[in-house]
Amino acid sequence: MDENGINVPAEVKGWNWGAFMFNIFWGIGNKTYLPLLCLIPIFNIVWFFVCGFKGNEWAWQKGDYQDVETFKAIQATWNRAGLVQFIITMAVMVLYFLFIGTIITSILNSTHY
């Protein structure tokens, strides 16, 4: 038994990409407001991961889901969106660092004439 006296089924527990990547919006959409703590600088670095790990449990406890299948269907949309956003973010970061590395290398090579 957890928050509000609501048991969380084992099938519900697990990582939630939507809660990790879209934490504030996900929290508001799922009527759980602990993800708003992601607005606190520096603390949010850890809290992003807490949201990813605990998100499904919080959503189950705050929602009025009839069964696990309905819950999983709703969270599957959040999970897909979060995973796609994560992949895009990682790709952009890799391209950014490659670009910056290329610029720095170019600058260093042009000054050695």
Automatic annotation (TrEMBL):
Residue ranges crossing the lipid bilayer per the database entry = 33-53, 82-108
Q: Does the keyword Transmembrane apply?
A: yes
Keyword terms of this UniProt record: Membrane, Transmembrane, Transmembrane helix
Name of the featured protein? Ribonuclease G
Organism this protein belongs to: Leuconostoc gelidum subsp. gelidum
